[in-house]
Amino acid sequence: MPFDLSSFLKGATRVAVVGVGSEMRGDDAAGMKVVRRLREMLNSPNLLFIEGGVAPENFTSQIRRFEPSHVIFIDATDFGAEPGEVVLAEPEAITGQSVSTHTMPLSILAKYIREQTGAKIALLGIQPARAQMGVEMSGAVKDSIKRVEEILLGRLREL
Question: I need a labelling partner for 40 at 20 to 30 A (CA). Which of 52, 136, 150, 151 fits?
């Protein structure tokens, strides 16, 4: 997995992890599934897990009140890679499109949260294979979810 989560989380004191996507659209549910699983496995006052769904902007006040040092959005994002590949980037750096019908682009949401909290923000994007309404999640994305969970568990347990 070619992303450096350790560098991004350097100096982190409070981390909000926001899952984005639609449970009804196959691979688009990846972010939601990761956040749900992390919430089950980690319990710390320094961690906030949000199932943002297709309207993560509805949770901005909760994120602001938490006062995070770092925010990670997890979303199925088409960045032109092989299904299941993962990228960690600034939300503005992703030139592809999120596969969900988000009501607000993540780049705008990230900018707003950065302005409101001063937090460092990253998008952990998982390349989908399929995200049509009613399809099942692909095996490549299921495998990526497991790897992302393991990596995040290791890094977030340190907080």
Answer: 136
No. of helices (H) and no. of strands (E), the chain = 5, 6
Dist. CA 144–CA 146, nearest whole Å: 5
31-48 pLDDT per residue, tens: 999 999 999 999 999 999
Which helix (H) or strand (E) is 139 found in, with range?
helix 139-156
Rounded to two decimals, the pTM is 0.92
Which domains does the chain carry?
5-156 (3.40.50.1450)
What residues have CB less than 8 Å from 150, skipping those under 6 apart? none
Compute CA distances 57 → 104, 122, 129, 141, whole Å.
7, 15, 25, 25
